Each structure stands twice: as structure tokens, then as C-alpha cells.
Amino acid sequence: MEVIFRPMIEADWSQVVEIYTQGINTGNATFETEIPDWDKWNSGHIQACRIVAVTEFEIIGWAALVPVSTRKVYSGVAEVSIYISNKYRGLKIGSKLLKQLIGESEKNGFWTLQAGIFPENKSSVKIHQDNGFRIVGYREKIGQMKGIWRDTVLLERRS
Q1: Structural domains in the chain plus CATH codes
Q2: Which of 25, 40, 59, 77: CA 20 to 30 A from 49?
Q3: What does the DSSP 8-state code read for residue 37?
């Protein structure tokens, strides 16, 4: 199976939403419970660093960056979002997609990428560590999902 990585465009949104919904449904990918519309999502994510993984017929994963702050001093620091279609998990697509995102982030002046991952999402923690992220801490009971307090593992990668 050939996978091509290219910039995400607005026309990709319907397939990106499907994959994002799958992630939400796992309960271990994000605190989000609803998909935002394109305009809201678009305004919150960095334009230059949005990538989709595409086979001949479909988008099978996506990755994007969110700024951690609007303050100038943090202009080179962003948080990673990465999602893979259920049908394509376990095929190293996530690792390849993250490598692409790291490359794009460096081309665009980002020096630090961070991720907050539920500790139960062991495969995501491993993918990040395999790509140069290190665990820098934990946030205990940082947010609630369905009335249950959840922790996150904090990972960071410096270019």
C-alpha cells in the first residue's frame, strides 16, 4: 500500500472528521466530545503544519499543530494532534505521519513540539517516544470525561 503525505485542504474535512470521530469514540484520544465545524477548527490550527496521509482512495490519517500560546515568546512552540483511521492502525502510519509533521514544523520555525496524551493510549505514547519525544511530566486529574477525572502524560520534543 502506497501512502502519500500532503498538506490538508478544506476539501479533506469530511474524511478528517470521520477519523477524528473515531478517535473521540475511543475515549482515549482527546478530551473533546464533539467535532467542531471547519471554521472553528481551521482558526485554531496552524495553517502551515497540517498533513494528511492518503492512499489511492482515501485519507487514512491526519496531523496538525495548535499554538500553545498567542504570546510571541512561544511562537515556536506547538501542540501535536495526530489521528489514524481505525482500519489502518498498527501499520506504522502514525509514526510516518508524525515524522512528516516534525519535518514541516522545523521548516516553519517550530523548535518545541509537545503532546498531552492519556496514559491509557500506550501506542500514541510509544509513537511519540519513537520520534524523539520524551516524557517531561504528568498532569493528574487535569480534566473530567463523563464524570471521571483523567490524567495526561506530557511529552516534548526539541528540534
Answers
A1: 4-158 (3.40.630.30)
A2: 25
A3: P
